[in-house]
Amino acid sequence: MINASGFDVAVIGGGVIGTSIAYHAAKRGMSVGLFESGPLAGGASGASMGLRSIWVWSHLLPLESGLRNDQRFIDFVHETGEDIELDTTGRIIVANSEDDLGYMHDFVDRLQKRGIEIRLLDQAEIRDVEPNLSPRVIGAAWSPIGGNAMPIKLTYGLARAAKRLGASIFTHTPVTGVHVAGGRATGIQAGGRDYSAQWVVNAAGAWCASIGQMAGVEIPVVPRKGQIMLLNAPAGLVRHGIASLHKPGPQQTGGTNIRPTPHGQILCGGTSEYAGFDVTARSENIHDIARRCVDLVPALSNLSVLRSWAGVRPRTPDGEFIIGGSDRLDNFLVATGHDFVGVTHSLVTGELITELMLDGTTTTPIDGFRLNRFNGSVQSHG
Ligand SMILES: Cc1cc2nc3c(=O)[nH]c(=O)nc-3n(C[C@H](O)[C@H](O)[C@H](O)COP(=O)(O)OP(=O)(O)OC[C@H]3O[C@@H](n4cnc5c(N)ncnc54)[C@H](O)[C@@H]3O)c2cc1C
């Protein structure tokens, strides 16, 4: 399938989504050029906490697909030998209010009826599973499904694996134009050179709208800022990824999250802010994250802060992904809108985009992710 003057597919963006597309497309024999304006994982993917969760999968993606995510990560590590600090020790969700607790009971009940291993914990069990959770946590549920992965290692691992399969990875090579002729995208301009491509995939995260403009395609994605911090921690203080539960909906935020790293540290997050492309970590937000996390795990209050940072997540008006072509150019595909669950859904997104290119259809239904759902009806974010 090698195209002498370019690539079968030009992928724009070197975050977890773009590198996953490059990997999956190369794995199925396509010639791939991936173009990233800065270093790999320089956007949201490098700022991410790396929690992999079934609790907050896209509400349009069938549950079964969310559940297969664990296996996808395990398979990736087995197939490529890449170390992505994969942790499959499961997840805890906690309820902070009576309202959240009611929702959690319904949520657990619904999942159990579908045969999913998840259960509510009583107070003694909470202490057993996560001894340092605050006695003020009014309810918690536990599932062995999910865990963590280190997002920077995941991005680099995907890019390395794609490269071994023949993909060309161009970093520090900004895409400055998308060529269009006869109702199709015919290639891109990047780093001052032109490349032809049968498919152009826009995986530029929070920057997708500007790439869309180059192709005359409106993409209603804005940056949603997230801040997190890293603490120095004694081993075992926190054993699992812990997340506060939130009802789904357009206003949904990433909530409060805590996770241990394999290096004796703990990540605490986060925030959800509309602040343009500003990625400064601000003391008032870091203070707020610390307060929320200490509410969940009081022992965190004595730890030293090693570092804090911020990134911008790609957010659509309805909070759902955009995966697929546009009405204007059906070979100009868009893969974005992953907001606070992009690491979790990175591998499935690469699979789906590759299926669209090679099979013309997907094994998982993605009708709800069409870009044209926004035609003439873009609501405000927030
Ligand atoms: C603080 C924080 C915590 C998070 N925690 C979690 C979590 O625990 N679990 C989870 O699943 N998700 C989490 N996320 C969300 C997740 O990180 C994102 O959804 C995901 O990284 C999006 O990946 P992406 O590849 O679409 O975007 P990005 O990683 O932003 O990649 C897009 C890339 O496109 C590049 N680009 C832009 N313009 C151009 C151009 N003109 N030419 C070439 N390249 C260009 C950018 O430089 C960038 O590298 C978190 C995000 C943040 C910010």
Descriptive report:
The chain is of the alpha/beta class. The chain has 2 domains: 6-48 and 152-220 and 317-374, FAD/NAD(P)-binding domain (3-Layer(bba) Sandwich), CATH 3.50.50; 91-144 and 223-315, D-Amino Acid Oxidase, Chain A, domain 2 (2-Layer Sandwich). 28% of the residues lie in helices and 26% in strands. It is built from 9 helices and 18 strands. The strands form 3 sheets. Strands 1, 2, 8, 9, 10, 11, 17 and 18 form an 8-stranded mixed β-sheet that branches. The protein has an 8-stranded mixed β-sheet with strand order 5-6-4-13-14-15-12-16, sandwiched between helices. It has a two-stranded antiparallel sheet with strand order 3-7. A hairpin with a 2-residue loop joins strand 10 and strand 11. The chain is globular. The termini are far apart. The mean pLDDT is 91. Bound molecules: flavin-adenine dinucleotide (FAD). The site of flavin-adenine dinucleotide has 44 residues, from helix 1, helix 2, strand 12 and strand 16. Flavin-adenine dinucleotide binds next to helix 1, helix 2, strand 12 and strand 16.
